[in-house]
Structure to design on (315 residues):
């Protein structure tokens, strides 16, 4: 049975007459990786700050394990670990000292703090840098250390704001694999502009814009129901025919049908192409086409995101 660990109820935050977050309601299940997506200015950071208790909502509430968020309660505060987009480190402290200090801020004793710190340094490939100053680390190592600092007090919920920003490919894979390893043991909320990252790691995805929730579902279901659709390329074995015949016959399934004459390839867009492929091929056969080899280029989460939030650049 699914257990809800975090919930926002009609969460709203206004700055003067401007609503940064407007009536935001969603639920996060225990042990899932939850993608929280939106363009710049969509209200993601404001929402995250309210969930963490860093910002008071104008109205609405945040519910953690059935209890309203109370930042004065240390037990509630310890439930959440936050890794911000901008790296926050003390340059004159070593990696080990950073983690031990952060643990002590959450009331964790010296020995437990050291054990937790060493384990995280090993998990994130930083054990050889334990006695190095943060200022001497590469950008990728600093981001991994920031991630460790969000986890050192063993929170139940981990919020990662753009965890792969500025990382080289090796570090990006390391962080992505570590996020996936946290799933089921912890609840992870990830904000990112990288749709491929969200598609790879998230169990469910919420897309917001203008402070409001647009959709919430698994990446797979979103790709099957939104966006331009999968691109299907069908090689024709009986020569070229009038493409308008195919377009008319496939009306309702595909909104975009074209022909590549030189290659003899019929191209069309359709949502849930795999599920609809048998019907598409049957329609083409009945229209006089003889389909041969079929290639499908899957609809992406980025296609879904662009359809919902538009192509206008955000600052």
């Amino acid at each position: 049975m699914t257990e809800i660990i975090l919930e926002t109820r009609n969460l709203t935050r206004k700055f003067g007459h401007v609503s940064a977050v407007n009536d935001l309601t969603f639920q996060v299940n225990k042990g899932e990786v939850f993608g929280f997506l939106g363009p710049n200015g969509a209200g993601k950071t404001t929402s995250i700050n309210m969930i963490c208790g860093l910002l008071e909502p104008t109205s609405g509430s945040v519910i953690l394990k059935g209890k309203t968020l109370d930042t004065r309660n240390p037990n509630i505060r310890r439930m959440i670990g936050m890794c911000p987009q901008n790296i926050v480190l003390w340059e004159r402290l070593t990696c080990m000292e950073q983690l031990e200090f952060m643990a002590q801020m959450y009331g964790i004793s010296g020995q437990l703090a050291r054990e937790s710190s060493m384990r995280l340094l090993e998990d994130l490939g930083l054990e050889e840098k334990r006695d190095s100053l943060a200022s001497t680390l590469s950008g990728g190592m600093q981001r991994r250390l920031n991630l460790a600092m969000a986890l050192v007090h063993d929170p139940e919920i981990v919020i990662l704001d753009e965890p792969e920003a500025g990382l080289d490919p090796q570090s990006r894979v390391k962080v992505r694999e570590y996020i996936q390893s946290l799933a089921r043991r912890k609840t992870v909320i990830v904000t990112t502009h990288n749709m491929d990252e969200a598609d790879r790691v998230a169990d469910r995805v919420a897309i917001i814009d203008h402070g409001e929730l647009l959709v919430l579902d698994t990446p797979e279901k979103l790709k099957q129901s939104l966006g331009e659709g999968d691109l299907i390329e069908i090689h024709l074995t009986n020569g070229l025919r009038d493409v308008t015949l195919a377009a008319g016959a496939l009306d309702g399934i595909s909104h975009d049908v074209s022909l590549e004459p030189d290659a003899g390839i019929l191209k069309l867009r359709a949502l849930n192409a795999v599920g609809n492929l048998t019907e598409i091929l049957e329609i083409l056969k009945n229209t006089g086409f003889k389909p041969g080899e079929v290639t499908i280029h899957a609809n992406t989460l980025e296609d879904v995101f662009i359809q919902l939030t538009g192509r206008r650049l955000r600052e």
Observations:
- The mean pLDDT is 88.
